[in-house]
């Protein structure tokens, strides 16, 4: 056959043949007229066509996919930090900066630096840049230093299959020939006999706000280092535990961070007074009229040898780790004073802000003009969920068994939830401030009439939108008494 070329792939296999003899006239795309030469003959072009009898399933060749992962490069950019850049001269490429954590090739972003300015050479407390600065006089600013990196990654050769007829396909009703209805017996396997099985379960966290790691991980005098959220294994109980021990207030960014939008003047002034109050109380119970008090009481406050206010900012004189640890102790003391639960060890009377303001040389301080940080409402999230799923089957009862021990702490601030969910619906148990609730979240809300008809079964506590998620949240609840 014209255009066909035999390639021995198999005794019954042959590539689709091409027939190049078909001719078609050329057209003027503007008006659709056939193009001709100067003698009026139509201009023709050869158009290859495929011999369709060759394009059959029986004669098609196999397609083979790779089974080994391929490596490829992944480019990423990470923030090294925010450093102060000093421009000693106008329009210069040599600037002063702390070089301890810098590398050649790092990108420096500042208001006086052109885009894509990189470090070309590192000197002593200064660097040379790829571009000249745009400043017209000597000045300084906080600049962001970023680092580009290239890492090797491997591709996953596993191919995913998409069902085209989910209602009737064999894949939708069976799993490798076994009815999907029987897989529920092994969906939730024991997650903690030998630690967390990452092939069946996944754990992830995320947090609100911006802070410093050294502030979030500061040491508490009683319970050790703080952390936002994590998963630990309780070996003695053969269990997996989700815990959080975060700081009560986020890091107070000072005036040096104003240009990057992290500075809050009102909160920071209250933080300065918080430091001053800690210093004054420490001095009062060290050398003042309260010097007879025990050392344990005095150490609840803040010495100016650890942290103090200087030039409108806070100096952490004892170093970041030690200063933050003592600030954590002073923060717990401040919160006890605010809540009225701190007791004077000598007089055995409540130690409140009114008592503090009445001490000689202290001045007026209360919970409205002092603050141990910035924000107290930033949220920390931790999730543990199964990777495997069980398909919902209308008309069939699905049962799930959980073995769980939960905190019943009545103080608000922590919400614990467990149950079953998909992208549109959730049925979960929740403990919030000691209150146990049964919660249904769905994109399809239940009407009030349906809830009223079920009042003989459940006590309907309240109905409201769940934090802007646009789910109707029906809480059928009772209170846990301690």
Topology:
Blueprint: E1 18-19, E2 23-25, E3 44-46, E4 49-50, E5 71-87, E6 94-96, E7 107-109, E8 119-122, E9 126-129, E10 139-154, H1 170-173, E11 174-175, E12 178-179, E13 201-207, H2 213-216, E14 219-220, E15 224-225, E16 227-234, E17 239-245, H3 265-284, H4 295-298, E18 308-310, E19 313-315, H5 320-339, H6 353-357, E20 380-386, E21 415-421, E22 425-432, E23 435-442, H7 448-453, E24 460-465, E25 472-479
**Major beta sheet summary:** 5 strands, antiparallel
Strand line-up in the sheet with most strands: 21-22-23-25-24
The SS-based structural class is alpha+beta
Overall 3D shape: extended
Number of strand elements = 25
**Helix count from the secondary structure assignment:** 7
Distance between the termini: 90 Å
Which regions contain 5 or more consecutive residues with pLDDT less than 50?
A: 1-5, 181-190, 456-482
Q: What is Rg?
A: 35 Å
Give the percentage of residues in beta strands.
Answer: 25-35%
- Provide the residue-averaged pLDDT: 79
- Give the fraction of residues assigned to helices: 10-25%
Describe the fold and architecture.
- With 482 residues, the chain is of the alpha+beta class.
- It is extended.
- It has helices spanning 170-173, 213-216, 265-284, 295-298, 320-339, 353-357, 448-453; strands spanning 18-19, 23-25, 44-46, 49-50, 71-87, 94-96, 107-109, 119-122, 126-129, 139-154, 174-175, 178-179, 201-207, 219-220, 224-225, 227-234, 239-245, 308-310, 313-315, 380-386, 415-421, 425-432, 435-442, 460-465, 472-479.
- Strands 21-22-23-25-24 form a 5-stranded antiparallel β-sheet, with no helix packed on it.
- Helices cover 13% and strands 28% of the residues.
- The protein has 7 helices and 25 strands.
- Among the domains are: 1-63, no CATH class; 71-154, Elongation Factor Tu (Ef-tu), domain 3, CATH 2.40.30; 255-357, no CATH class; 402-479.
- The model is unreliable at 1-5, 181-190 and 456-482 (pLDDT under 50).
